[in-house]
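Session log. Operator J.P. requested a structure for one protein chain; no other inputs attached. Running the standard single-chain path with token output.
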Amino acid sequence: MRKTIHSTLFTGLALASIGLPLISDGFTEKASAEQSAVSMSNAAYSTTIQAPVIKPSWSFPVIPIDRNRYPDQAVAIAENGKVFAVDSNHRLVALEASSGRKLWQYGDQLTPVLTYNKGIIYGMTRSGSIYAVTEAGKKVWSTPLGFTEAYGIQRIGPTIYIMQSVQTAAIDAVSGKVKWKISEDKNSYSGLGEIMETDGVLIRNYNVQGSLTFEQINAYDAKTGKKLWDSFRSSFPLAVKDGIVYSVANTFMIDDDPVNRKVTIAQYDLKTGESKGDRQYRWTEAENKDGTFQSGGIYGSAFLYGKDLYVFQGKILASYDFWNYKPDSKPARKWAQNGYDQLVPLLSIHEGRMFYQDFSTSRLTAMKLSSGQFIHYDGDNPTVQADVFGKGVYVGQSDGVFHGYDLMSLKPVFAVNTGSRSFGPTLKSGGMIFIQSGNRLLGVKLPASLK
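Structure written below.
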């Protein structure tokens, strides 16, 4: 029976090699020391990174992030020379970015669910209310909502959207008035964190359980919250253009041909969900001799960057002109994905580099699109958090050391000893970065080469 494997994202795994002692038939003097039954070494983390160790310009106590509850959320946001953070007493504070000096504080019993838009900070309280505060610390409004477990907040146009598991709420950004609240069936749905609005239609993604669990997109009327349509086995849209939604279709266990492979892009009418056909991007592979079929990640995911659709085809990465689709067209470009079976695509391009996570070591890896050369941002301990801004790569390691690298040269530029193994997303504003490490927020002035 052919086995099927659906690949998923792994983080924080370190691959170690095992070496066994050599045995000789010759006569030797007995050693008094006891010999190990198994000896393990890991060359990947045996060298020390040589970089100047710098001290933070300032440190401020904040609430530690709960990655299970807030997987993508930071306890702070940085805007206009200020940092707005939820401190250790669950208050919103404004800090001067350069010095860490506290400018004001607001409220109490707040959660690390924050967003900023046009001089207003929006956030959530532990009791489930949403609030709005000006950049100067003046309360604009507060509205009871009952979303005590909210994990996502986003302003789109005149509306603030709040996500909590299978629930979604729409709030008028100016007045704080609740426009609508909706909830899907919690017995079959679980909420994911992406949301978009276009031409009066709100699209949100979920995991939905049938005989198997797959991603589903639901479309709602943005004014009323009324559900317009849904599509099972469809990923969050690649794009919406001219009234058509483009989404990668999940064909796992429907079309598992191990040799004649394809990625299918489904097309739906934005208003009605009516199918407008699909596109297929095809390639062939040699069938695995062990009979496994691998799907997802490096084996058939895709994402859109500008006009280019990148399709991960196992050993090959291929790009196509998405807006000039022709059936069975050849790729515009192809690259070999070296060590492809260890890579997870991060679906991101920056400075001409395609980024991956090497799940055998957890390290950040990139491929230069100009040459196909793979480059690795090696550390001397496993990576916990990695972020890229401009010409810099910023990595928090499991030993509590935070490193800054030059994106282009890979040269380590600086290190910071944070004292914590826990890291949240790094923030950047002007010539400063802000490291969320354990229960502290650290302000670090960047060296000139990374500003």
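Operator note: Residues 1-31 have pLDDT under 50 and may be disordered.
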